[in-house]
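Late entry, F0G complex.
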Amino acid sequence: MSMNAAGSRLKQGGGVIDRYREFLPVSNSTPIVSLGEGNTPLVYSAKLSARIGRGCEVFVKNEGVNPTGSFKDRGMTVAVSKAIERGARTLICASTGNTSASAAAYAARAGIECTVILPAGKIASGKLLQAFVHGAKIIAIDGNFDDALRIVRKLGQRESLVIVNSINPDRIAGQKTAAFEIADLLGDAPDFHLLPLGNAGNLTAYWAGYREYQGNGRSKRLPAMFGFQAAGAAPIFHDKIIERPETIASAIRIGNPASWRQARAAIDQSKGVVDLVTDEQIIEAQIWLAQHEGIFVEPASAAAIAGLFKCCNAKDAAYSFQKIPEESRIVCTVTGHGLKDPDALTARMGKITSVAANEEDVLRALGL
Ligand code: F0G
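Prediction complete; structure with ligand written out below:
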């Protein structure tokens, strides 16, 4: 087979723009910059379903298996394709890590420059390495994500720089495709959708996607949207800006989300809730999911699972699953891969001591 034939065949199995072109702001003349993002697994979890009981089904949408390991790639393929169409030469973004990793990779793929503005010392090591290896210019600031985004908004006024944060509507447009995939697979939207809430773009995008699909007759239901913030970084829950957000889930360490108003509206319109989960609950959920379902997610992603557990157990939860109808369908989105943030867990692993390289010593170490 010639390279061209192989190339075009691969292209047919392309990313979210190929699959959902009619719902996205692209035309035939838009040059598509894709790494084959999307089409991520929607994993049925018998164990999570059992925790809720009453015939409910729980699915985990595993966005960590996207090309750069997070859901950001869905929005980035659209944002970068549109940026190239408009003749952009340099992308810029603020990030807690995943947006910068994705922007850097898609810029490399497109052959353009990328500058990332990051809170110094607060980016998970895997994500920082991604920005480095893809050749982004990395600027660390003595401030948090909110400070970085404020600076990026200003710099983006220059014509030479295209902002690829979710304040760019092309990002939200691409991220809607996750809702399309779920509705396509289940045959309809779920009854409840749970996800972590940081800068609030993703919840906004899912809600837009579900509404658009319903408007087009592709689905009938609309889910109740549940957003979970880390207890130390919960501006939407408390309805006030958090000046110094803190959480082990560094991806959602955000005190003044850009899509605050839109996410609040989505939660209210869908009759959903916003709630918070502690760092302990986040890590417990992260380890639970890894050990019971074989899905390793980063701490921010585990907020969705911690939120599900909170709804199941706690009397103080903003929503109790005692209230959910029997046989409801629940989807939890886990947003990023666990390998991005090894430091969050290595302290727990402790030291592994070696034994002599023979069968007897190994058997003794195993207690056999
Ligand atoms: N989960 C992960 C793994 C994230 O990286 C983010 C956001 C979120 C959840 C929250 O999504 O912001 O749309 O509400 N990360 C951004 C970044 C802020 O810079 O990578 P959101």
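The CA atoms of residues 93 and 165 lie 6 Å apart. Will revisit in the morning.
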